[in-house]
């Protein structure tokens, strides 16, 4: 098995980090571009595997679209292929076939899509057979499972003969991702009316306007550098993260606020954001409903610095690349911490446990890029081994190259500590 051994820095921590660009923004821009017949000029598209897969599948004439482990690619393409009348088999990794899609399929069927499940109802793989637009222009959809279903429907809505009104029911999770979708749609000329109090979004039928669009760097990827800054033993540590903006479409820019009490000050510059240290608190409570992808980063950072962290809004973590709650519970133990459910209503706490750090801790990554990247900053204080480091390719392929600007990153055979 492949692994990397990460060794703490020996000198002052000063680095400029180029970052990857946002796969979320990229994948939306690509769907909208496809709906303009590929007439947009998209710049700084992400090198993330999820985006490269989207590009490949949009161009491919194959009957089978294998999205691998990319959630947005699966959900956005299912809606896109359905309304553009393309007969496709949608499939992915075994884990992708455990991630629910029934809520989106039901909505698409209401709008006129003919979709059948090939194995288990409500889950990929599925077969898109065709599209006969129905007169129905109103769809009720749950907002508490995945915002990706809502984004997928919104992006194709301007192409429907009667447009679309979405009525969101229940709690809404990951709302900034819905707002990102709407802002990108409006940028490309869509006519959208949103009433968050009534939880309705109306999209009029009108074609997108082809335009040029530059994708911002990835705030989810930036979060790991916030953790690196917070965990640096060198209190003069300074990092510059390139390509981030203070006014971002990405909800994960909330990392600026989350990391302030964990000891990181953010200063926006012409080219990005500069991270420096400030005094840290000993406790933090955060609701991750609208930024679920930050939960692992913050959990590991708090655990390492002995900050007692209360997490809420983490229900969706169980249906992502892995069950991220279970994965965190298993791996935090190895760094002397624990994640405990303190109430049946999904309130969790991260705190130091009785166990001691066993150097080097060997962290399993569960086919989840965020497990690898969330635990990598541990190396600011202790030697750590990360198994299957290639998982980062899903969202941030240059992550280890960027890490090597600060710490020693050595490929080894896991379990042997031998360079491989
Ligand atoms: O729309 C998007 O680009 C995403 C939405 C979020 O998913 P959920 O809406 O399922 O929480 C997030 O976790 C994912 O990484 C990207
Ligand atoms: C959950 C994620 O992605 P997706 O749902 O698009 O697979 C993620 O990148 O953390």
UniProtKB/TrEMBL annotation:
The keyword Metal-binding does not apply. Its EC number is 2.5.1.19. 3-phosphoshikimate binds at residues 23-24, 28, 146-148, 174, 293, 320. One of its GO terms (molecular function) is 3-phosphoshikimate 1-carboxyvinyltransferase activity. It catalyses: 3-phosphoshikimate + phosphoenolpyruvate = 5-O-(1-carboxyvinyl)-3-phosphoshikimate + phosphate. One of its GO terms (cellular component) is cytoplasm. It is found in: Cytoplasm. Its main location: cytoplasm. Residues 10-59, 61-403 form the Enolpyruvate transferase domain. Phosphoenolpyruvate binds at residues 23, 71, 99, 148, 324, 370, 394. It is an enzyme of class 2 (transferase). The keyword Hydrolase does not apply. The active site is at residue 293. Pfam families: EPSP_synthase (PF00275). It comes from the Bacteria. Coiled coil: none annotated. Keywords: Amino-acid biosynthesis, Aromatic amino acid biosynthesis, Cytoplasm, Transferase. Pathway: Metabolic intermediate biosynthesis; chorismate biosynthesis; chorismate from D-erythrose 4-phosphate and phosphoenolpyruvate: step 6/7. GO terms for biological process: amino acid biosynthetic process; aromatic amino acid family biosynthetic process; chorismate biosynthetic process. Monomer. PANTHER family: AROM/DEHYDROQUINATE SYNTHASE, PENTAFUNCTIONAL AROM POLYPEPTIDE. Belongs to the EPSP synthase family. Catalyzes the transfer of the enolpyruvyl moiety of phosphoenolpyruvate (PEP) to the 5-hydroxyl of shikimate-3-phosphate (S3P) to produce enolpyruvyl shikimate-3-phosphate and inorganic phosphate. This is 3-phosphoshikimate 1-carboxyvinyltransferase.
């Amino acid at each position: 098995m492949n692994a990397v051994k990460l060794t703490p820095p020996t000198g002052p921590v000063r680095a400029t980090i180029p970052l990857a660009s946002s796969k979320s923004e990229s994948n939306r821009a690509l769907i909208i571009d496809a709906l303009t017949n590929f007439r947009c000029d998209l710049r700084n598209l992400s090198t993330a595997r999820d985006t490269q897969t989207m590009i490949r599948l949009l161009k491919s004439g194959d009957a089978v679209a294998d999205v691998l482990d990319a959630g947005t690619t699966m959900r956005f393409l299912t809606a896109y292929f359905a309304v553009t009348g393309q007969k496709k088999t949608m499939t992915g990794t075994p884990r992708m076939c455990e991630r629910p899609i029934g809520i989106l399929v039901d909505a698409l069927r209401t709008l006129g899509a003919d979709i059948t499940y090939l194995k288990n109802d409500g889950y990929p793989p599925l077969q898109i057979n065709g599209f006969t637009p129905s007169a129905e222009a109103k769809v009720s959809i749950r907002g508490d499972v995945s915002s990706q279903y809502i984004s997928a429907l919104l992006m194709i809505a301007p192409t429907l003969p009667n447009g679309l009104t979405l009525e969101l029911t229940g709690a809404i999770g990951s709302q900034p991702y819905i707002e990102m979708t709407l802002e990108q749609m409006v940028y490309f000329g869509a006519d959208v009316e949103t009433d968050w109090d009534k939880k309705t979004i109306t999209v009029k039928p009108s074609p997108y306007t082809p335009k040029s669009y530059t994708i911002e760097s990835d705030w989810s990827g930036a979060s790991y550098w916030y953790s690196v800054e917070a965990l640096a033993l060198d209190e003069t540590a300074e990092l510059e993260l390139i390509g981030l903006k203070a006014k971002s479409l990405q909800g994960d820019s909330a990392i600026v606020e989350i990391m302030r009490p964990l000891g990181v000050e953010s200063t926006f510059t012409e080219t990005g954001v500069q991270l420096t240290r400030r005094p840290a608190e000993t406790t933090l409570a955060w609701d991750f409903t609208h930024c679920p992808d930050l939960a692992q980063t913050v959990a590991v950072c708090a655990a390492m610095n002995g900050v007692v962290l209360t997490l809420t809004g983490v229900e969706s973590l169980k249906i992502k690349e892995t069950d991220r709650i279970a994965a965190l519970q298993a791996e935090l133990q190895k760094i002397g911490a624990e994640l405990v459910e303190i109430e049946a209503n999904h309130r969790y706490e991260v705190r130091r446990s009785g166990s001691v750090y066993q150097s080097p801790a060997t962290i399993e990554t569960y086919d989840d890029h965020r497990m690898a990247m969330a635990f990598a900053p541990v190396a600011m204080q202790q030697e750590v081994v990360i198994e299957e480091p290639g998982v980062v390719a899903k969202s941030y392929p240059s992550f280890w190259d960027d890490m090597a600007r600060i710490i020693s990153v050595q490929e080894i055979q896991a379990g042997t500590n031998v360079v491989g």
